[in-house]
Amino acid sequence: MGPAIELKDASLTLNGVELLPKINAYFNPGQLHAITGANGSGKSSLIKIILGLAAHQGQVERHWQGADQSAQAQQIAYVPQQTAFEASLPISVKEFLLASLTRRPFFAWQKKADLNQVHALLQRVGMQDKGHLRLGELSGGERQRLLFAQALERNALFWCLDEPMTGLDQQAQELINKEIMGLREQGATLLVIHHDPDWVAQYADQVWCVDNGLYIQGDQP
Ligand SMILES: Nc1ncnc2c1ncn2[C@@H]1O[C@H](COP(=O)(O)OP(=O)(O)OP(=O)(O)O)[C@@H](O)[C@H]1O
User: Residue limits of the ABC transporter domain (predicted)?
Assistant: First the structure.
């Protein structure tokens, strides 16, 4: 089972500007939490403070059950919104995933079993014929899918997805959606920033809204 996430007076101020006021919230473990809100309301910032990627005030706690500390570190997956790769990097999609999978340098010997696993990961996101492309040659939607594939490799039970469907075609959306549902069935805790109210209504266990604070949908003052 994934962790519960608890925020106690957690807030974020950057360059003297308060981006998130004090938030108190409890995200139940093993559920799909949709995070909604207007552009610029602070959804990505919320994810960043939960992941420890932005220096916040107050407390953010992850409550795992029955997992030791080192395992916990492996069990977090984050797919950020819009990532760019340096176009001149001489690294292919396959090499990128291999290095991530094996934790070995790009020039190291490649085992058949690892290559098979990379192929299987690419297949899960519909990119099995893109393994030879350089990272800089990928489209925005392909980059998004590659990062999702990289995150899948970790078998994480805590996932933060920042607009995972943005820029994806219908077929890719269906593949990613299937993976997200599979993760939920495995008991992962998922925080998913999403702008599509139909998707949120259909799939989310809990709907949160960032609007000068964090509220369960419908509870805003
Ligand atoms: N490093 C920073 N310094 C100052 N302001 C920032 C910084 N990073 C983000 N912001 C501001 O914080 C606000 C919240 O940004 P954030 O990316 O969290 O919003 P969001 O809800 O995820 O938006 P969107 O739906 O457009 O992705 C925005 O007004 C943004 O301009």
Answer: 5-221
